[in-house]
Amino acid sequence: MISTEYLYLMLGCFLVTWIPRVLPFAFAKKMHFPAKFRLFLDYLPLCILTALLVQNLLSVPTGRAPILNVPETLACIPALIVGIYTKDLMKIVITGIIAIALIRFFV
Questions:
Q1: Which residue range forms the structural domain that includes residue 18?
Q2: Which residues cross the membrane (predicted)?
């Protein structure tokens, strides 16, 4: 049986995660932003996803130059092709997961 302290902990984690991530979107829908600021905001998801992708494609040993992670880079190729043709995030993610799973299984 789950203790009440555990439930309180889960509720607290939910609130701490939900408030800064979801609540700003609710307020932003009701606000009007200048055109330049909206243009800036339109590029944020692309920049964040690119930063996450590059972080996973490169490993940086201490005091050395970055090294390319070959399996992850190979898995990005089919995901990129699916992304170019479909522009569907779910298909891109599924393709990437299947590609990295196959690469790790066979290599």
A1: 1-31
A2: 6-27, 39-58, 89-106
